[in-house]
Amino acid sequence: MSKLSIVILASVGMTIVTVLAAQFPIEARARKLKACVDPQPVAKRVALTLKADKQAIVDNKHVFQPLTGKASVQPGDIIKYTVIAKNNSRCPLKNLILKLPIPRSTIYLKNSATAIDGAELLFSIDGGKTFVEQPKVGTQPAPPTAYNYLRWRFRGLLATNAQVTTTYKLQVK
Question: pTM of the predicted model, to two decimals?
């Protein structure tokens, strides 16, 4: 059984008001092919980048503007997150998984997450313990307000120096 490479990026990039500034760990893991050996520490095999943009109205059009430094957000603001995972390993990675928390001060906007290149997109309502396509509360579909994690599983190989990009939107409570 091969070991999983796990990378965690905590307290990402920028401070977005105290309400969103809490730890925002992003986790990526992947299996490398058995024939290829990479002596790099596990934490350096996958580079993760998180970019946050705030929806604004400019010239009567909805646009997303980058959040930088100590940007301010208000309840109702919509934030689009872009996550880039790059394979820094000398080996192709198999079954890359990106696991992203939804901060308590935000709500996931339904159908806003992109599933790229056949990636499987799953959601959790139990703190990231289990993931399913459509979470349920009892027999009813869970509302997006109950979602607290997203997870993408890329089934194929991610070549050396290749990257995948995912996006999703959250609304500030």
Answer: 0.78
